[in-house]
Specification:
By secondary structure, the chain is mainly β. It has strands spanning about 5, 20-25, 30-35, 40, 40-45, 50-55, 65-70. Strand 5 and strand 6 (about 50-55) form a beta hairpin. The protein is elongated.
């Protein structure tokens, strides 16, 4: 299962559109990312499955869970 160890950006606007780099392990080509249950866009896996970049979706104000699924 994929594991997240860090995000390079921890805040962003409610409107989304922020490019975020996620580091961790077990990321596979075709992985999906959600922020508070809403899918992120432009998901790209690199670094042998240890780095993932994506664009945040719009979401409600407040903290959200970030999830990566293969």
């Amino acid at each position: 299962a994929p594991t997240i160890t860090a995000l390079d950006v921890i805040t962003g606007p409610q409107s989304g559109g922020t490019v975020v780099t996620i580091t961790g392990t077990g990321f596979a080509s075709g992985a999906g990312v959600t922020f508070g249950g809403t899918p992120a866009g432009a998901v790209t896996v690199s670094g042998g499955g240890t780095t993932l970049t994506c664009v945040t979706p719009s979401h409600a104000l407040g903290l959200v869970d970030v999830t990566v699924t293969n």
